[in-house]
Amino acid sequence: MTGTTITLHTAAAEALVAQLPTPTPLRAVAVDPASAHGLRAAGSSVVVTSFVGSVSADTAVLLADMDQLAAAAGTDNPMVSVSDVLRPALEAASGVLGTGVLGESRRESADALLADPETVVFELTAAGQPAGWFALRLREGGTIGGSSPVAPTTGAVSTGNLGRINNVEMALTVEIGRTRMSVRDVLGLEPGAVIELDRSAGAPADVLLNGRLIAHGEVVVVDQDYAVRITKILDVADGIA
Q: Helix-strand-coil percent breakdown of the chain, rounded to 5?
């Protein structure tokens, strides 16, 4: 594993701990995966997720006291799970890897991830005491270790192959803006509250296909229903950027 790759692992681990809402700041130290027995023994207590982008990755996080993590985040609402509390930290870690999409966070065993020699494991310590683990495996080019890169997509796509999926439905979403809020502020929302978005009035809306930005448009009303008029179709490169 190259020095650049190791640096990328370390940067992701440091970004993760910087965003964890723990009572005591944590420090990430790379360790021998064989010593991460606590992560294996935890079973479904581990929060795992995958990131897909130019550099894809699989991650797993375990903290010694997951309940303390939720308490530190300032919520005991059953609607907010530990995975939700960890989400901003996982987004920060995956953001180091570049442009891509972070998958759903879920609680399950990380045995297969830890058994892979490509996985780098970090011990998370608080005041010198073990407080958890963070495991990261990079999949360059969409494959583990980057040994078999995915062939680049070209404009010459087989119409016959696409014809097989003509009837497959995909989720088309129109987004007029985004914002980030703390869990405390979300739980404090009441009817009449105003949430300010990151987009000015009159700015074009984003049209996303299965989460991928494909076009811009303007929101209109058709027969008393909202609709979107497409103003610009993006190419693949624009959508990824």
A: 30, 30, 40
What does the pLDDT look like over 117-160, one tens digit per residue?
888 999 888 888 888 889 999 876 544 444 333 333 344 444 44
Using CA atoms, how far apart are residues 230 and 4, in angstroms rounded to an integer? 42
In terms of domains, do 177 and 142 share one? no
What distance in Å separates the CA atoms of residue 73 and residue 69, rounded to the nearest whole number?
6
Residue 74 CB burial class (10 angstroms; 0-12, 13-18, ≥19): middle
CB atoms within 10 A of CB 219: 12
Q: Which two tokens stand for residue 101?
A: 């999409």
Is the separation of the CB atoms in 69 and 20 below 8 Å? yes
Question: Which ranges of 20-169 would DSSP assign to H, the alpha helix?
Answer: 37-41, 66-72, 82-95, 111-115, 159-163
Residue 96, domain extent: 3-146
Q: Residue 241 corresponds to which amino acid?
A: A
Helix (H, G, I), strand (E, B) or coil at 166: coil
Hey, which residues does 222 pair with through a beta bridge? 225
**63, pLDDT greater than 60:** yes
Assign residue 191 the CATH number of its domain: 2.30.330.10
Regarding pTM above 0.70, the answer is: no
Choose among 141, 126, 93, 110: nearest CA to 40. 110
Residue 92, token pair as written in the block: 């920060």
User: For the chain, how many structural domains are there in total?
Assistant: 2
Alpha carbons 95 and 15: distance in angstroms, whole number? 9
